[in-house]
Amino acid sequence: MSLLWEKSSTWRWIVRNSRASKPFFYTFATVCGVIPGVIGYCVMQMTSSRNEQLESYLRQNARPETRMMGQVNKERLAEFLGEIQRKEDTNDRYVAALRGETLTRKPYVRIQPVTKEMGDVAGAEPVKEIYSGSFRPRA
What we know:
Layout: H1 2-7, H2 9-20, H3 22-47, H4 52-60, H5 64-85, H6 91-98, E1 114-118, E2 127-131
Antiparallel strand pairs: 1-2
């Protein structure tokens, strides 16, 4: 800001008038907040497409993993919103996330470790191990 103060007489004028007059300050702050908001809103309106044919085409040609992730996200959101509506304590969700655990795979079971399937190098059947977020070599 000192560079603006030293080089720009317009900026010095704005600062002086903002210090001297509250209405000028509020007007300047409003203009600085509203104008970018209006420009952003206009850009979003001009660039968003509500083409029904395009939406149906994209939905028909979606890959299976995309559809699956949409369903999983919908289920997780429904579970989370249900917990909020029932006013359940959800702080353990964040504690579990810090430990590398998840709370949303089995409904109504709170903390669950993340399982990870690992196969041997020789191609033997996969072994399920509990993954706690820290590396532990297998015996």
